[in-house]
Design goal:
Elements (H helix, E strand, L loop, with lengths): L12 H25 L6 H8 L3 H8 L2 H14 L11 H8 L3 H30 L3 H27 L9 H11 L2 H10 L4 H16 L12
Helix pairs in contact: 1-2, 1-4, 2-3, 4-6, 5-6, 6-7, 6-9, 6-10, 7-8, 8-10
Length: 224
């Protein structure tokens, strides 16, 4: 009997580009709806309609609504479609490699502002949904753990440079930085109180320096 030859499915670069464009279109539509009306009230059908695609297309791309939210979070956190986690990103490594403690915290503030401008509102969506959806609760727990680990990495870099205030160990300093940099404070100050992202960045820099560094230089004063 003749051996059956398996045919290999061919995907052209154009088809891959179209699939990636459709996926991005769905993610953008989901972001608009999640941030506008919340996770529970947003259906997959509504996302499909917002994106202008068939409902089946949304399910093929993401399988579940929680899977779609997770994919959207990863995109907004990292800023692109690459799979590398934050700890492996060049902008995070740049912080860890910075020899000057003051500039290290300024870079941290800059990066944190950029992430929160992309993903701050979605963080609020995820936190709210975590109380009613087990999959999202797992996502929120992972976000919290990863975020604390990343702040601890920054603090360890300061500790290596002998830049932490006397009596302030790595564990306590990591908790302090985690709290100051937490999305809840961003949502309170920028989302609720109307601070600009720039005002938040300056505040975060000044407070982090005063709370963490052994010799924090005098904060820049703003005009009254």
């Amino acid at each position: 009997m003749a051996e059956r030859v398996k045919t290999r499915r061919y995907e052209s670069p154009r088809r891959r580009e179209q699939a990636a464009a459709t996926r991005h279109q769905i993610l953008e539509a989901a972001q608009r709806l999640f941030e506008r009306q919340g996770y529970a009230a947003t259906t997959m059908a509504a996302i499909a309609a917002e994106a202008g695609v068939a409902l089946k297309t949304v399910y093929v791309a993401f399988e579940t609504k929680s899977g779609l939210l997770r994919a959207l979070w990863h995109l907004l956190l990292r800023g692109d479609q690459e799979d590398a986690p934050v700890a492996d990103r060049r902008w995070y490594q740049e912080v860890l490699e910075e020899p000057d403690p003051d500039r290290l915290l300024r870079l941290t503030a800059r990066n944190s502002r950029a992430v929160k401008e992309r993903a701050g509102a979605l963080m609020g969506v995820i936190r709210s949904a975590a109380s009613t959806d087990a999959d999202i609760a797992d996502l929120w727990a992972r976000i919290q753990a990863d975020f604390h680990d990343n702040q601890r990495g920054i603090v360890k870099a300061l500790h290596t440079r002998k830049a932490l205030r006397p009596g302030l160990g790595v564990a306590r300093a990591a908790d302090v930085l985690w709290t100051l940099n937490h999305p809840d404070l961003w949502l309170l100050l920028v989302g609720e109180r109307g601070w600009t992202p720039g005002e938040w960045e300056r505040w975060f820099t000044d407070v982090a320096r005063s709370q963490l560094l052994v010799r924090a230089s005098t904060p820049r004063r703003t005009a009254p």
